[in-house]
Amino acid sequence: MRKLIFALLLVKAINAVALDNQIRISQEQIDNLAVKIGGLSIISETPLFYAPGKVVVPADRELLISSSQPGVVTQLPVNMGDKVSKGQLLAQLNSPDLVGLQQAFLTAGSELNLSGLERNRDQKLLQEGVIPERRWQETQMLHSTKSSKADEARQLLLLAGMSAAEIKSLGKTRKLDNRLNIRSPIDGVVLERLSNLGARLDVQAPLYRIADLSTLWLEINIPQERLNTIQIGDRVRLANSDIIASLTLLGQSVNQDNQTVMARAVIAGKADGLRVGQNVNVQIMQSTSQTGFKVPNTAIAQNDGHAYIFVRNPDGFVVTEVTVTGKQDAESIVSGPLSGGEQIAIKGAVAIKANWLGLGGAE
Length: 363
What we know:
Elements: H1 2-14, E1 18-19, E2 22-24, H2 27-32, E3 36-39, E4 41-56, E5 62-66, E6 71-75, E7 83-84, E8 89-94, H3 96-127, H4 133-160, H5 164-173, E9 179-183, E10 188-193, E11 200-201, E12 206-211, E13 217-223, E14 235-238, E15 244-254, E16 260-267, E17 279-296, E18 301-303, E19 306-313, E20 316-328, E21 331-335, E22 343-347, H6 349-357
Antiparallel strand pairs: 1-2, 2-20, 3-22, 4-13, 4-17, 5-12, 6-8, 6-11, 7-10, 8-9, 10-12, 13-16, 14-15, 14-17, 15-16, 17-21, 18-19, 19-20, 20-21
Helix pairs in contact: 1-6, 3-4
């Protein structure tokens, strides 16, 4: 308050004269009034309103990892929040059922090898005229059946969680192993661990929830009365952040509890600092064909319901009326007869306004 009184007394002392919209004042007087000069920031978007939102993962980038065979959990080497690579071990189970599948695979492989030998023998006998054509056809059919069974046994091992390399090793060593390794099918992050060491699991029992976080969405609750002011393609800015997203979907139903409509925005680029499930406050931004300018709130003076800024010129300042089209934290978006290259008073507008109106002028 004392600073304001001092500024008003100083304005009276310098006896600056305001003619029409021109405020005549020297640089020395500007310095004494602690007026700070700055430029305009041209913008192409208008902030509309704030709305609550939540950070989510696209459904096609999230996976539930489950047990492919019954067994007892013997290893859980990763924890919630860990980054995992494709093929990395997530869990190991002691699974007697896996041994049965391995035995069936080895048996089917042995029968296929025997059938192959018989097929080669009968083919030679057919060429020598020893056996009839019908016998050769029966041998071929039997070999085809054995081949299908061997392939089926291999597919069952793949479904059980064994890798192609592990199955190949089993075929060579013929060594049964009841350890079932569950591996990550993608590069991602562990969002949740759903089992404990020593747990006895059934088929399809959940183990982990993992997700690829390279793409994140925002689910935003838009008040239904605001729907007619936004459209697909509008940008979304997270409060107190440089993170930007773009609206891609406006829901077709209204939440009965809070009368909002769910909107989806895709975050552009990296979303450092965001966490899945995090509640955020966002600001909807809309492109505009009318050029706007971002100025500090301290640069705007109000008088008789109108807003003004003070544009620097050689004689002092020109009082310029503007229209405030939006606010964004400590800044406002204005439009008016401006080119964007002007220098304006961004601090000390109260003292300049008092000069313009006379000492009796008030907010």
